[in-house]
Write a structure and sequence with these properties.
homodimer; Ribosomal Protein L25, Chain P; six-stranded parallel beta sheet; about 25% strand; RsmE (chains A, B); cytoplasm (chains A, B); PUA-like_sf (chains A, B)
């Protein structure tokens, strides 16, 4: 069933009626060609999933009757914030799309010293709003109840100051080369449900040793993610899968 | 350092000289513009990594002196065979590229009932040889010592007959929806190093319940990979990351 995220707060008692507004109306009525009586899923702002039936519509609003309400547990037990150096081409989009499917709570893109790409200041807002749309579409498709946040930080120092987190790791190739293989497990073992894990990844060019040691100084630990070298957009997928495996399956 | 896979068997004692042939010669001499004295890494057929120095060359061969030999442990402890329904667009290429970075031992593509794409018989060999090249390039970049195999099977029944494996799982959305979350862990716990895990994934359209029950009948167990719905090309990445995490980091 088609799924939409609601931006307004609604009453979720069965048989109550709410008004759907915004882009979802256009998608449901025009793209999906919904007719009165047709159903869709609507995710409320407090992560309930409402099955709603179309009653009537105008070109910009739809009246929807609440038919069933559930509270599925589909979010990762830890809130994982994926921080990545800005990368070339569609890599940032891939990170957001796949990372959303894999349960990330948010994405932070930052400029770094070895980055081969930069976001021009005048294009930054447009890039971020495109990534927000990708996150929303991926959240709908993967049946999540939360749309991950997407934001930007000028560099790693401001990032660790501005972002709140309970534990932080930085994926660093040099750690992996030296055989470091226990920090991720140790970090995950220490964490409590709903705590925030900040996971930092370099751009294609990697991070500088200064960037990494500055992170280490504020308590962000270097962690190896296995002995193979992964590309910039693959490493966050590894991390999110590992968090899901260890927290949801083991 | 640039890395090449050798197709011929060489003597790996230090200071011995071997002849490099094939496409690697062209890449090293013409693309990388190697000069006498320059070094590269060469992976032997028994997974040793040789640092070699260019002595001299013709247009089709290069004489290389062995300088150093190591046997790095960068392969997954389990041999994971990723079997995927044929998918549209560049999804098969993405599965091979990313799956190679994440340590897959091989890829098998199969035709299935709900597949929205088919490989025309006359194009199959060309597609497979393109995927083999992608696997080789990704293996070089991720510093692996084995190039994964790539093959095709007409359907799931012939696949499970033709492919040898010690344990098999099929990722099935319906299992995940019913809250199945222990089969992957149980399967991994049972396996011994170097055993072969066959992991089967549907195409975009999913597998039919008949295809899944036929697999279950031959001992391939349905396994949930967490509560979120993943696209066809994301699920194999989850599985490979989970195998690495559980076998290489925990």
């Amino acid at each position: 069933m088609q799924r939409y995220f609601l931006t307004n707060t609604i009453t979720t008692t069965v048989d109550s009626v709410f008004e759907l507004t915004g882009e979802s109306v256009h998608h449901w009525l025009k793209v999906m060609r919904a007719q009165p009586g047709d159903q869709a899923e609507f995710v409320t702002r407090n992560q309930q999933v409402v099955i709603g039936k179309l009653l009537s519509s105008t070109t910009t609003t739809a009246q929807v009757a609440v038919q069933q309400v559930t509270t599925p547990q589909v979010e990762l037990p830890l809130q994982v914030l994926i921080a990545c150096g800005v990368s070339k081409g569609d890599k940032t989009e891939q990170i957001v799309q796949r990372g959303t499917e894999l349960g990330a709570a948010g994405f932070i893109f930052f400029d770094s010293q070895y980055a081969v790409a930069k976001w021009a200041t005048n294009k930054r807002e447009r890039k971020l709003s495109r990534l927000v749309k990708i996150a929303q579409a991926a959240a709908e498709q993967s049946h999540r109840t939360v749309v991950p946040t997407v934001s930007y930080q000028a560099n790693l120092s401001t990032l660790v100051q501005q972002v709140s987190y309970d534990a932080g790791i930085v994926a660093w190739e040099e750690s992996a080369k030296q055989g470091e293989s226990s920090q991720l497990v140790q970090t995950l073992n220490k964490m409590q449900p709903q705590q925030r894990l900040l996971a930092i990844f370099g751009p294609e060019g990697g991070l500088t040793s200064t960037e990494v040691s500055d992170l280490n100084q504020v308590g962000v630990v270097s962690a190896g993610l296995g002995p193979r070298i992964m590309r910039a957009e693959t490493a966050p997928m590894y991390l999110l899968s590992a968090v899901s495996f260890s927290q949801e399956l083991v």
